[in-house]
Amino acid sequence: MEAIAFTDVSKSYGDVLAVDGLDLSVRAGTTVALLGPNGAGKSTSVNMLLGLLRPTRGRVEVLGRSPDEAVARGEVGAMLQSGELIPELTVRETVDFVRRLYPDPLDLDEILAMADLAGLAKRRAGKLSEGQAQRVRFAMAVAGAPELLLLDEPTAAMDVESRLRFWAGMRDYAARGRTVLFATHYLQEADENSDRVVVIARGGVVADGTAAEIKAGVGGQAVHFTLGRQPAAGLDALPGVTAVGIQAGAATLQTTDADATVAALYRGTSLEVRDLRIAGADLEEAFLTLTRES
Ligand SMILES: Nc1ncnc2c1ncn2[C@@H]1O[C@H](COP(=O)(O)OP(=O)(O)OP(=O)(O)O)[C@@H](O)[C@H]1O
Ligand SMILES: [Mg+2]
Q1: What GO terms fall under cellular component here (predicted)?
Q2: Which of 66, 205, 271, 285 is most buried, by CB atoms within 10 Å?
């Protein structure tokens, strides 16, 4: 069962193309990191999963339904980049208020423990630090025991210690068989806390795999991408390239310098490069190469 399916989804804000032909599906029970630089389209994608934004083109499905239906059924929980708390309510009251909106919520004390809030239960929301408020937002997101949990840069205001505890809580939730998608620009967070890393840049997927796959094998780097019906002429002349393979519209370039090859592929050719993936690169190196502006 697919928990998330984007099919050729684009979203424009006026003349800004924020998401560009996104194809992405996520199997239920998986934890996926959506990794990308500022402006890559992460929040736009998350907001479409929540039905807060409509795609300009294409189709978005959540748990086999429209996002609106899935949300209305209480199947989706979310922690967004913004979100006000009611300052007069205590942490406990806030979380309890939210969990009572759902048909089959988690136990209140269980939620407070998972979000590391037991010691702050009586504190008024208006007196919390920003990192503590983030933990309350996480508690609100899991309160209804959603099948799909969406977290948009959840650790933004947290210190190192809070981050570690936050991710432990998230993994605890994911271990119950739930699907989690989180957006981040931190490679390490993506690497340590997900089953699958989807790198997006300029509104499209540029790499997709386990963190280990993305950084696997330092020697024998290969650049893979979808060429479709475009001509392959000239690919063998790109810097670093030692061999070119084309099979069913998929191109594989063996290279001694993946950075130079990818840069030239974007800057030196007029090809529309999709689904680009580098095997054998360090994750950080691959991320920078993949997401660098062309
Ligand atoms: N309401 C809006 N109106 C116009 N442009 C927008 C709007 N929201 C987002 N954008 C633009 O769409 C693109 C994608 O933005 P989005 O917020 O989805 O990126 P992001 O990956 O979440 O970035 P960040 O890491 O900074 O949160 C950016 O170029 C942004 O400026
Ligand atoms: Mg964002």
Answers
A1: plasma membrane
A2: 205
